[in-house]
Amino acid sequence: CATAPKGPDPDLVAIQARMKNIKHKLLVLSGKGGVGKSTFSAQLAFALAAAGKEVGLLDIDICGPSIPKMLGLEGEEIHQSNSGWSPVYVEDNLGVMSIGFMLGNPDDAVVWRGPRKNGLIKQFLKDVDWGELDYLIVDTPPGTSDEHISLAQFLKPLDGEQDGALVVTTPQQVSVADVRKEVNFCKKVGVRCLGVVENMSGLEQRVGAFKFLQRSTDGNDVDVTAAVLAAVSQIAPGVDLEQIIARTEVFHPEGGGGEGMA
What band does 201 get if pLDDT is binned at 50, 70 and 90? Predict the structure, then answer.
């Protein structure tokens, strides 16, 4: 009977050759959906690019790619050359790759089983021509499923001193409990957890930007913004309300939230 070929997977060798041009790989993970992974990934990429770094943003959320929408890149297409797939550039030093660029209709559902997802992730890692990068940020789907296992497997031989995962959570316990599983996943597969990001931990807004409403039993709320601001000005004369910030917790940080988990 036939036997499997011996020796290293040639795709892993190709991935290793491609990743040698990237100094640091940062995985953005979470065990919970809707905590803001893609938003955080995009903002981190923009911040690093603004600091003068060469940055790549790879979206491997195969079934729900949101990076093209967030970065205003819907409708863009991937171009191929002898050196591989070219990223879509939102800035001169910020390239983006996502399956969203491959969909004819952004509303099309991607109904793929694990092996096909893994194949595309492998292709992204070995075929995208990022060039020389300081940082590659990988935005992942929620959970600890095929995409995460494949990513850890493909990048494991490439672990660098500052490579690892940033885990995103929101403060409430139902999120922290799922995200804790993601931290344990990192331990099991040997991915270093660089830190926990607590997103949506509070809302801050200038007092002067608030709209104050007085509730009524008939449902017709009355706008009392002018009266409230006038009353505040009388209590605290000389205070510039445009410079006063009001803060409230969006989600109650049960059990200490992300900081307690960390």
Answer: confident
Q: What is the pLDDT of residue 162?
A: 55
pLDDT of residue 165: 92
Structure tokens at 80: 């191929």
Question: Are 42 and 67 in contact, with CB atoms under 8 Å apart?
Answer: yes
- Indicate the pTM of the whole model: 0.81
pLDDT value for 213: 92
Question: DSSP readout, the chain?
Answer: ---PPPSS-HHHHHHHHHHTTEEEEEEEE-SSTTS-HHHHHHHHHHHHHHTT--EEEEE--SSS--HHHHTT-TT---EEETTEEEPEEEETTEEEEEGGGG-SSTT------HHHHHHHHHHHHHHB---SEEEEEEE--SSSSHHHHHHHHHHGGG--TT-EEEEEE-SSHHHHHHHHHHHHHHHHHT--EEEEEE-S--EEEEGGG---EE--TTS--EE-HHHHHHHHHHHSTT--GGG-EEEE-SS--GGGHHHHH-
What's the whole-number average pLDDT of the chain? 86
